[in-house]
Amino acid sequence: METAEVKPQVLANRRGVAFGLVRQNNTIECVITIAALETHFWLEPGASEARIMKTFRDGYGRIRAMAERKLLAHPASHPELTADDFARP
């Protein structure tokens, strides 16, 4: 999968970060929750938007890989990545 040229952004409700992935010439919107960033990417609670985006960029490799796995498992979905997605069994 290719990375979309869609600029990641914090959702208006501050529930997560929206980003896009290109799959079969379509851009699929994905979201990672703030809770997932706090639990698995060391984002401090109540962080500023700038800090949220830095944490997202720093962890983007893992985030993208998980979004791609979810898209492969559920092709018609718009993945929302939660803390449970990154938990190790």
Brief sketch in words of this structure:
This protein has helices at 34-40, 49-58, 60-73, 83-86; strands spanning 2-3, 9-10, 16-23, 26-33, 80-81. With 89 residues, the protein is an alpha+beta fold.
Could you walk me through the main structural features you see in this protein, from its secondary elements to its overall organization?
The relative contact order is 0.21. Strands 1, 2, 3, 4 and 5 form a five-stranded mixed β-sheet that branches. By secondary structure, the chain is of the alpha+beta class. A hairpin with a 5-residue loop joins strand 2 (9-10) and strand 3. The termini are far apart. The radius of gyration is 12 Å and the shape is globular. It contains four helices and five strands.
Evaluate the radius of gyration: 12 Å
What is the end-to-end distance?
A: 26 Å
What does the average pLDDT come to? 91
The CATH class is: Alpha Beta
- Please give the CATH architecture: 2-Layer Sandwich
Q: Estimate nothing, just give the exact number of structural domains.
A: 1
Q: Outline, from the CA principal axes? A: globular
- Low-confidence parts: none
Examine the coordinates and then state which fold CATH places here, giving the name of the CATH topology.
Double Stranded RNA Binding Domain
> Could you tell me the number of beta strands?
5
The percent of residues in helical segments reads 25-40%
> Main beta sheet: strand number and arrangement?
5 strands, mixed
Counting helices, strands and paired strands, the structural category is alpha+beta
How many distinct helices?
Answer: 4
Order of helices and strands: EEEEHHHEH
* Beta-strand content: 15-25%
